[in-house]
Write a structure and sequence with these properties.
Layout (H helix, E strand, L loop, with lengths): L1 H13 L2 H32 L8 H25 L4 H5 L3 H6 L4 H28 L9 H27 L4 H28 L3 H8 L3 H9 L5 H28 L1
Length: 256
């Protein structure tokens, strides 16, 4: 049943004009960022020849492109996820869904996987751009794989947070604004509070703050470092918001 719900949500996203508009805008931004990085690389390439251990195309072109894509996801995912639960409530169809012989867990996980299916298409398009350079230059496939894996974890975190926010309201726009605000707050917490605590030598509180910062957890993988703590934080954050979404809908069902 989970995969049936996921397939329905994925089909609904591909049938939605908003999803196609978001996908188009994202691809324009990704493409421009990628071509701009290539142009910058070509301008500094003569100087790189004289360096002992110069950074390659993957470090100077691919990694910054993924970093740009990560920021774009911060805006895009709330828009894609805002209708998952909120529209069901607005259209008064949520009552039928939660009263059907389907568990709340199946509903939430199915909708999450449907959104992730769409986001995996986006991630695939981003990952394909560097591969177009493979015939003309050497790529660090290890770093590319690390970037892609980190991007998947980041997208999963954003999707889980946005899905939970969609459970809190019957208005999709309010859900999108709430999801963006929550993600931005988590980003600022990781960048400011985490760095401030670490600068004071309070490494344990700083590590705890990192749990709530998806972009902070993306950074090690973005540098090609397989940081198990960052991976665990990303998975924990994703699972936590999925569980909260399940509890929220379960409470809604009990209230009738």
């Amino acid at each position: 049943m989970i995969f049936t719900i996921a397939a329905k949500e994925l089909k609904g996203l591909f049938a939605s004009p908003l999803a196609w508009v978001v996908l188009t805008v994202m691809q324009i931004i990704f493409g421009y960022s990628f071509l701009k990085r290539i142009d910058d690389f070509l301008q500094i390439q003569p100087r790189l020849v004289h360096m002992t251990n110069p950074p390659g195309v993957t470090e100077l072109v691919v990694a910054p492109t993924f970093a740009t894509a990560a920021v774009v996801l911060l805006f895009a995912v709330p828009l894609l996820a805002m209708r998952l639960i909120a529209e069901e409530r607005r259209n008064q169809t949520m009552v039928f869904l939660i009263s059907a012989p389907v568990s709340i867990t199946d509903i939430v996980v199915g909708k999450f996987l449907g959104l992730m299916g769409f986001l995996l298409v986006v991630i695939g398009l981003v990952a394909l751009m560097p591969l177009t350079l493979a015939g003309g230059t050497w790529l660090d496939y290890g770093l590319l794989a690390s970037l892609t894996a980190g991007f998947v974890l980041l997208a999963a975190c954003f999707a889980a947070v946005s899905l939970y926010m969609s459970c809190l309201t019957a208005h999709p726009v309010a859900a999108a604004i709430g999801a963006f605000s929550a993600l931005l707050a988590m980003l600022l917490m990781g960048e400011t509070a985490g760095d401030s605590l670490r600068a004071r030598g309070w490494h344990v509180p700083a590590a705890l703050v990192q749990v709530l910062s998806p972009l902070k957890n993306f950074e090690p993988l973005g540098r090609g470092l397989v940081d198990t703590y960052a991976i665990a934080c990303s998975l924990l954050l994703t699972i936590a918001f999925i569980v909260m979404a399940i509890r929220r809908l379960d409470a809604m069902r009990l209230r009738g």
